[in-house]
Every structure is written in C-alpha cells, then in structure tokens.
Q: What sequence folds into this?
C-alpha cells in the first residue's frame, strides 16, 4: 500500500536540514504522525586506480564515536552539477584529482526517515595534486585494494551506508568483468 501524506509541519530548519512532522494515512484509513528529515542531495565518487585499488579516507564520526573507511562525499553547491560536486569533494578531501567519471549508482541511505539522496560516480584513476584542502575530513587517505572491501565491511571498518553500498556495488561489478 502506498502511504498518503496529508500534510507536513516544520519542526526545525537550518541551512543543512529540515525536520518535519508528517500526517500520513496508512492502511485502513488510520493516520500516523511520522518525523521526516529533508536534506539537499549529495555526490561522491569511488575512485579506482592502479591494481584495482580504491581511494578512501579514514575518518572519525563523532555522532557514533566510530572510525571507518569512506568514499569522498559531500553536498552539491548551488549551480554545481552532481558530477562536478563529486570531483570537487574528491580533491578537497583527498588531494587527488579524479580521472574520467561516469555514474555508478544512487543511494538513499535512510529512506524510512530521510529523503537524503547521494549520486555516486565511478572515477577511472586520479592525479595527486597536493595535500587535502579540508584537512579536518580525514585522519589519513589511502589506496585500498577493492578486493579487501568485503572483509573491511565484515570487520566493521566500512559502516557508512553510502560508502558501503557504493564500494560493494563497485566490487561486484568489477568482479563480473
């Protein structure tokens, strides 16, 4: 059954997020008050270099107090294309300029509570241009074998939903070739 939204009321808004309370009709004409988080879309990239290694950042997430490997990912600036945003995020967070990019997948990491949508690209190679411009994003930047991704997921060293989905998809499609 498709739920029917009758209304949404703002609870909190700032430039980063918009939290709302939705009046939703579910089965049997019953109504449910459901919180909804609205966000701007994001873009990121799985950068695959020599020897099937992927460019990852090792970072701490204070909200969950966890460390993990992630792909470069961030917001799309006004007037910027998703592909341009993904390339910019790679440069800012890693100090590497991605090579040619093509769409890989779209991830909605938490569709039960949020409309967050991440456009993910696959980049063929990268050129080192210097230190990351956003030094607060990552503890370290490394080229990690794509073949190691399933084990990193199993060890909970990749826990970010978008990074996990994109990397496992890249791993699966690479192994099909």
A:
């Amino acid at each position: 059954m498709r739920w029917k939204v009758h209304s949404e009321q703002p609870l909190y808004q700032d430039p980063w997020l918009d939290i709302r309370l939705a009046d939703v009709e579910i089965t049997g004409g019953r109504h449910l008050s459901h919180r909804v988080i609205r966000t701007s879309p994001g873009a990121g990239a799985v950068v695959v270099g020599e020897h099937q290694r992927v460019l990852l950042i090792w970072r701490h997430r204070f909200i969950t107090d966890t460390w993990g490997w992630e792909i470069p990912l961030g917001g799309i600036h006004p007037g910027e294309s998703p592909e341009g945003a993904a390339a910019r995020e790679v440069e800012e967070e890693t100090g590497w300029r991605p090579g040619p990019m093509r769409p890989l997948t779209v991830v909605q990491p938490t569709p039960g509570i949020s409309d967050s949508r991440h456009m993910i690209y696959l980049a063929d190679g990268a050129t080192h241009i210097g230190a990351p411009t956003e030094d607060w994003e990552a503890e370290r930047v490394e080229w990690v074998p794509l073949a190691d991704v399933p084990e990193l997921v199993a060890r909970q060293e990749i826990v970010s939903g978008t990074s996990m989905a994109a990397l496992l998809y890249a791993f699966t499609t690479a192994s099909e070739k």
Observations:
- The chain has a mean pLDDT of 95.
- The CA atoms of residues 60 and 67 lie 4 Å apart.
- The helical segments are 82-94, 149-154, 161-175.
